[in-house]
Amino acid sequence: MTYTVLSKRKLLKLVMSKTVRGWDDPRMGTLNGLRRRGFTSGIIKQFCKEIGVTRVQSTIQIERLYSVARNILGESSKRVMAVLDPVELVIENFSDLPDKSALSLLVPDYPQDVDLDGDKAYHQMRLTQKIFLDRTDVRTEDLKDFFGVAPNKQVRLKYAFPFTCTKLETENSGRVTKVLGQMDWTNSTKPKGVLSWVPANSPKVEVRVYSHLFTVPELPNDVKDWESFVDSKNSERIYDSARMDPESYAKNVDSIVQFERIGYFVPDQDSTKDKKVFNQIVALRDGAGEMTGGAAISGANASRKDAQMQQLALKMEKMKLSPTDMFKKQPELYGQFDAEGLPTHNAVGEELTKNQRKKLKKEQDKQKKLHDAYLADVKA
C-alpha cells in the first residue's frame, strides 16, 4: 500500500528512534496502528474484499482504504460540531432577539436520515453571545472563492442565523483574535457560506490530524537513507485547544463521530478524565488531503511538492548509476559478480539460482536503458 512500509526492520527503527508513538501509532501500517487510527474491522474486511486476492505483486493506493472508510462511516457516524483552531466571535446585537427560545437549536445526529435514531435523532446546541469559529473560516480580506467570514460579509452559522462581520480584532502580525458582528434575527437571507461553530461553554479537546508518514508513495528498494523520506513533522498535527459542542461531548466521547465539515474522528487511548483526545480517521472529502484546515492543507500541498521533487531527484540519481555497478551497491545482498556486474552469489556466499540470475538480468537491462538515456541527454 502506498505511503506505508511493512519492513519490520524499518518499523522497529521508527519505534526505537521515537519518530512515532509506538507500534500502534496511527500513522503506522500495523494492524494495531490501523485500529488506533479508527479503521474498524468492518472497514478492513470491506477493503480486503474490494481489492481481492492476486498472485501478481502490486501496490494498492491508500486512498482506496480511505474511500471505504468514508462509505462506511458516513452512514454510521453521528454528526458533531467542533472547531480545531478556535477564534472568538461576539454577537453585538444579541439582546435584540425577541424570542429567547430560538437560542436553543436542534441539530440532527444523522442529517442524511433524521429518522435513523427515532426520538434521539437530534441533540441540542445553545447559541450564546460569544461562540467559537474555526480560524480557517476567518480572513481579513475577502476572496472570490472564499465562503467564510470577512469584513462586511454575511455568512450563515450552521443550524442558526445569518451573521455579518462588522469588525475584526487582530494582533500586530495580522492574526485574527476576535470577530464582531450583527446577527440577522429575521433569518430572511440565504448567504452561500455556512460555517460550523460551537458555543462559549464548549469543552476543550485535543485533536490529532494525520497525513502520510512518508513523503513518497513507495520507498525505492536501493535507497539506504530511507529515513530522509519520513515526514515526522507534518504527518501529525496536534490541535490541543480544539473545542467540541457540550452535549455531543457528554454523549459521544466513546464512539466514532463526524466533525461536521472536517472529517471522521475516533477517541484515542490517551484520553483522560479531564481532557479527551480524538484521532482523525479520514478527511471528509476525497482529495481534500488528510490534513484538515487551511494551514494543514497548505502543509500537505507543500509536502506533495517536496515529494515530487524528491522523486525526480531519485530518478535522476538512478539514471546516473551504471548497470555494471547497480548490484555492487548492495553488499548486504550480493557478494560475488560476473564481468558484467551481474551477481553470482549472495552476501553469505551461496550461489544464486538460474531463475534468480534471470530476474536480476531483467533489472539490469532496465537500468541500462535508463543509463543510456541519461548519457544521451548529457551529450546533447
Automatic annotation (TrEMBL):
Domain tRNA synthetases class I (E and Q) anti-codon binding as annotated: residue spans: 194-268
Keywords carried by this UniProt record: Aminoacyl-tRNA synthetase, ATP-binding, Ligase, Nucleotide-binding, Protein biosynthesis
Name the lineage: Eukaryota, Sar, Stramenopiles, Oomycota, Peronosporomycetes
One GO term in the molecular function aspect is:
ATP binding
Q: What Gene3D superfamilies would the database entry show?
A: Glutamyl-trna Synthetase, Domain 2, Ribosomal Protein L25, Chain P
One GO biological process this protein is involved in is: glutaminyl-tRNA aminoacylation
Q: Which InterPro entries match?
A: Gln/Glu-tRNA_Ligase, Glu/Gln-tRNA-synth_Ib_cat-dom, Glu/Gln-tRNA-synth_Ib_codon-bd, Glu_tRNA_lig_a-bdl, Rbsml_bL25/Gln-tRNA_synth_N, Ribosomal_bL25/Gln-tRNA_synth, tRNA-synt_1c_C2
Q: Where is the Glutamyl/glutaminyl-tRNA synthetase class Ib catalytic domain?
A: 1-70
Give the record's family classification.
Belongs to the class-I aminoacyl-tRNA synthetase family.
Protein name from the UniProt record? Uncharacterized protein
List, alphabetically, the GO terms of the cellular component aspect: cytosol
Which stretches does the entry tag as region Disordered? 338-380
Q: Where is the composition biased (Basic and acidic residues)?
A: 362-380
The record places domain Glutamyl/glutaminyl-tRNA synthetase class Ib anti-codon binding at 78-180
